[in-house]
Every structure is written in C-alpha cells, then in structure tokens.
User: Which sequence fits this backbone?
C-alpha cells in the first residue's frame, strides 16, 4: 500500500460521516422517511450496512445525528442595529424554520434517536450561541441586555414548546409578542446611558 | 349467540384498549422498552398482533397512546390558599414527575409516535387544564390572575423545554424562580382589592 492510500482514521471517519449524512438527506427527499432503511442508506453512501450499525447503532440514531447537523445555524444572527430588532428578527426566523414540517421532523428526530440527550442538548446550545451573539452585540452598543438563560426561558422555550405541543395559531405575531413582553413595551434594549 | 355474548363494539374496543395498555405498562417494567415488540404485547394482552397493528399502526403509536394516558393528571391541583403557593406547588410537582427518567421517556414517546401531533397536543391540554383550575380558583379568591396562555409561556414552556433540551441544573429552585419572576417578587397573586 502506498503512503497516499493510507488515510488517517479521522479522515476516513469524516468522509464516511459526510457521505452517510448526504445519503440520508437525499433519500429523505426522494423516498421519504417511512421508506428509509439502513441498507438503502448504505448502498447510496457506498458503505456496508454494518459500518452504519457499528457507528450509529440504528436508523433512529443516524437520523438524530443528521437532524442535529441540519439544525446547526450556518450564519451569525443579522445585525439590525438594536437588541429589540435583533431578537425579533431572530425569533421570527427561528419559528419559521423550526415550525415548518421539515423543521418539526428534524426536531423530533433529534430528540428521538438520542438516548443520552446529547443531540437535544446540542440543538439547545445552537440557539443559546445565537442568543449570546445578539446579547453581546447589544452590550457592546451600550444597551441593557438580559442574560442568555433568561432569554432562553422567555423566548426560545415558549417558541419550541408551542412548535412541539401547541402549534395552533403560531406565527410571526406570536414571536414578536414574546419579544415585546420580554423586553417591555419600551423597556429593554434602551441605551444604559443617554 | 345469546344476547349476553353480544357486546357493543365500543365496549369491546374499550376492553381491548385497556388490556393492551396494561400489557405495555407491565412489559415496560418487566422487559424494558428495547425488548418490547407487538407480538409480545399481543400475547400478554390476549389479542392477536393484527388487532394491534389495525388499531395503532405500529409500536411507536401504541407507546405514544400509552404515554399520553400515563401523563393524564388524576387529581386536581391542590389548593394551598393563594395563587403563588398553588403555582409553585404545581410547578415543582410537574417538574418532579416529568423530569424523572420515566417521565422523560413518556414525554418522548408521546411526541414520537404521533404523526398528526394529537398526542402532544393532549399532553399540553392536560397542563393547560390544571393551570386553568389554579387560575380560576385565584380569580374566585379575588386575586389578580394572569391568563392561561401566558402562564403556559412563562411556566410550563420553560419547564418542558429544559426537561427535553437543557436539563442541567434543573430542580425545585428553578421551578420556584420561574413563578417568582412571573408573578413578581411580591407582585402577582395579591388580592385585587384590600
């Protein structure tokens, strides 16, 4: 075997993950979730089924990993110039993505094939990181900003709870109302001085 | 066939449901979730597997129905004399039950085998009904009471969100803090007059 053919385990491992994840995403849109099987994914990804079973345990855990990867934000929250606008835009977009039928399926997958809770925790960490960016930016502007955990309780939790359990009447107006009730009608987000 | 042997469909249907649900609960504690199969449940319940497939579709949907039944509160919230005490006691008990390993398993089951969202909605409706009893009682006492949906957002949603996604540090102190932040340090729950 030439030197070039010897790949680091990490390299091969990463390639297997990428091709298996891609196969799942393709097949989800082509054949749908109910028709998805480990042998089907393996064939599309060019690996053996046992590679998938060894690494992911079962289809549910694989779907959970793919879901978490899908739910990872790929950009920083947009800067709209003040805390209220930033939180409102973020909450509207979060609701829009998560409450879509594919968003809900991904959240359920992330929660489901996740015996140790790590994937659910990762979803929540993604939201917390985005909130943290928004709050830090507000602090830099001299705005009075709440802390991350309180923002999770007042904004992220009710959005996610209603998406999962109580979706009737959910929409951008609800997201805006949460922000208004959280920051106060004219309350939060004002400059600390001036 | 004698008159006595002719049972109404509703009666038989209810008996099948009761015996299948009981079989699931027994087997969950005896063999665990991973070893549970439809034929095993059918054998214990004294029905055919096809009876279960016809009625529930698959094991996941059956587990979801059993979970919702388990999550139904069997008593009214206790009356501790004022809104703050009632909400605090309810939130502590809700967290205690739902955050237990069996509680979390039931919530996940309720969410998962639930393609149309009806079972998740039912879980949320149970919580809303209990909150409604507490708030109506506060109103009867002449206390200023918030509305049910706001209470869902401020109390139930963060509890459930953290149970599912962000369980680190969850405990009775967190439940009490949510109530305090919601009602105000000495704010809500005071008599409207006097």
Assistant:
């Amino acid at each position: 075997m030439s030197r070039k053919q010897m790949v680091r385990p990490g390299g091969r491992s990463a390639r297997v993950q990428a091709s298996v994840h891609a196969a799942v995403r393709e097949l989800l849109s082509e054949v749908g979730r109910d028709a998805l099987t480990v042998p089907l994914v393996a064939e599309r990804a060019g690996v053996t089924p046992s590679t998938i079973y060894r690494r992911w345990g079962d289809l549910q855990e694989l779907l959970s990993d793919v879901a978490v990867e899908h739910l990872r934000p790929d950009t920083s929250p947009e800067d709209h110039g003040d805390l209220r606008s930033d939180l409102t835009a973020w909450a509207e977009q979060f609701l829009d993505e998560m409450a879509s039928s594919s968003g809900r399926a991904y959240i359920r997958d992330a929660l489901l094939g996740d015996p140790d809770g790590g994937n659910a925790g990762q979803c929540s960490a993604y939201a917390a990181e985005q909130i943290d960016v928004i709050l830090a930016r507000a602090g830099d502007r001299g705005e009075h900003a709440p802390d991350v955990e309180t923002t999770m309780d007042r904004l992220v939790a009710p959005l996610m709870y209603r998406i999962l359990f109580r979706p009737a009447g959910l929409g951008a107006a609800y997201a805006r109302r949460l922000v208004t009730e959280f920051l106060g009608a004219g309350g939060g987000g004002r400059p600390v001085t001036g």
